[in-house]
Specification:
Helix content: 25-40%
Strand order of the largest sheet: 5-6-7-8-9
Shape: elongated
Largest sheet: 5 strands, mixed
Radius of gyration: 26 Å
Number of domains: 2
Number of strands: 9
Strand content: 15-25%
């Protein structure tokens, strides 16, 4: 009798553990099933009124328990990988979407503006600005930001590098960087900028917008500034 009761108790515990395990598996499955490429495609097509095609997941960890990140393509920029993401918010578990398509749309315009501003302070400089393919820069509620709003949005994650020609000299570097920051603030641009005073002619000549050369060698000074969302200089440093 005692063994029968003991056996019944053990059997009940085993059944309970199995049920919990099954429920746990179902919950994981439910979380993963909430993320589909079709939903991301629908979000992108409704937001931009364009057709997009799924290419591949962002990395081998996709989908995650609370997010899905994928690369897309479209006819307008056939050579570019467009990042789009869907994730569950921590507050209420609702879905939110983000992408970097605005950055791609405005890339040439942004680079031209950064180059124009940089050359106002450093006439013979070279400017590098590219869209980082692994960073979502737009999470607006189904709307496309105008270019001016894109420039002033902290979520745009704007960053560029200015390489100053050899022989320019860095004796006025702080004043010049402040002047550059003033111009960025006048244009209401939230961004970070790196200034490199090069003392190597070959480095300057081979500097490219598309391929980022290592700037840790052959420089005279490197400065960095950040324009915050309140359009004030949040940080300036030199090394």
């Amino acid at each position: 009798m005692i063994y029968r009761k003991l056996f019944s108790s053990i059997y009940l515990v085993i059944c309970t553990v199995m049920m919990i395990g099954v429920c746990g598996c179902m919950n994981i499955g439910e979380k993963k099933s909430k993320f589909t490429t079709d939903e991301i495609l629908q979000y992108m097509e409704q937001k931009y009124d364009e057709n997009f095609t799924y290419v591949k997941p962002k990395d081998a960890d996709q989908p995650g328990a609370y997010s899905l990140s994928v690369f897309l393509k479209n006819e307008k920029y056939p050579e570019r990988l467009i990042l789009a993401e869907c994730r569950l918010t921590e507050v209420n578990g609702e879905k939110s979407f983000s992408d970097n398509y605005c950055s791609i749309m405005y890339e040439d315009q942004t680079r031209e503006l950064f180059t124009q501003i940089s050359k106002s302070v450093f006439p013979d400089s070279k400017t590098r600005y590219i869209v980082e393919k692994n960073i979502s820069t737009s999470n607006t509620e189904g709307t496309v930001d105008a270019f001016e709003k894109f420039l002033s949005s902290e979520s745009s994650c704007l960053s560029f590098t200015v390489l100053v020609e050899p022989g320019h000299g860095s004796d006025k570097k702080e004043q010049e960087l402040r002047s550059l920051c003033d111009l960025l603030i006048q244009k209401k641009i939230v961004c970070s900028v790196k200034i490199v005073f090069s003392d190597d002619t070959e480095q300057f000549e081979t500097f490219s917008c598309d391929e980022y050369e290592e700037l840790s060698n052959n420089y005279e000074a490197i400065g960095m500034a950040i324009i915050g969302k309140d359009l004030e200089v949040a940080k300036i440093e030199w090394r």
